[in-house]
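Methods — Computational structure assignment.
A single polypeptide chain was analysed. Its primary sequence is given first, followed by the predicted tertiary structure written as structure tokens.
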Amino acid sequence: MSKTTGKSAGSSKNAGAGKNASSSKNTRAKTPKRTRSGGKPLDDQAMAFLERYLNNASPTGYEWEGQKLWMEYLRPYVDEFITDTYGTAVGVINPDAEYKVVIEGHADEISWYVNYITDNGLIYVIRNGGSDHQIAPSKRVNIHTDNGIVPGVFGWPAIHTRRQGPQEKPPELDNIFIDVGASTKDEVEALGVHVGCVITYPDEFFVLNGDKLVCRAIDNRIGGFMIAEVARLLKARKQTLDFGLYIVNAVQEEVGLRGAEMIAERLKPNVAIVTDVSHDTSTPMIEPKREGANKIGDGPVICYAPAIQNKLRERLIQVATAQKIPFQRLPRSRATGTDTDAFAYSNSGVASALISLPLRYMHTTVEMVHKQDVEHVIELIYHALLDIKSGETFSYFE
């Protein structure tokens, strides 16, 4: 989730190397003869994919390796794929239908760039998205180079050495640095590290207490996972739609909704249902009076904001109520800070709504969501699609 205006070593993928993301094209999916018949979200194969997908590095602007994993998982459940120049991937069901509905998440994760290398081999960084300098000290990192991953650490002085005057010096963007074990700039560059290399954290997926899913980049890799699960359930439950469904995994949300802006203009949908994450405000140091009183385990969060088309939002609430899916509410001042804004204000206006997944510890390496909330978001989107009819305008004047 990008900032609102009112808002691994285990992964051997090299996000910075190789060919650029797929160029603009449509490709027919080759559907295997057999697909899974399970009609429940988050079965064992889905969870295995989620772990693999989260563990793969997909920093903003370098999402294509993660997109390839996502497309591979989605392939049995769609008729064709669309990809664009910057790496957004779209699975399409009923591509010849005139009426188009989008379900969307974003694929990118926050990261860092190598910005400056000192003569004694230390690396200073700038943000790629909303990376938090406060959590950086002592974290391990992966620097993505043309030669592969170069591991490093964010160095930090001992607690009893860093007091300067009466106040302790806090982490700031201009005093955090990466150490790759080199003594000179030449040694760093000999490893393949140069200014402009992208940097990610290697932290990987794990489960706490049976039902809490934890990883970096859950914001919003989980969104791409959930919309893929919707497509899988449509196939497994033998449901057909009378409109074209565009399952969009957009790039570059974390730097201003850029991927969604591009693909919205290309697809020209009639309806867009976007999913992202929102804050669990039940933990310390976050103010529910400002950020809203939402909590993991209490269900999807349905958003109220100027970009939200009210009749579409009320349809989601009706569906949730009919299906006994618990939900929460959240108003956003001015912008939602999500790809919803990009779709809503494209193409002379697209009826758009936002279903958020409540999440703890956003933009850290231990983002946490509740497994049941994930299931409920999937089911809400699934049942909403079954309720939408081709040709609906959601006009306030009809």
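Note: The mean pLDDT is 93.
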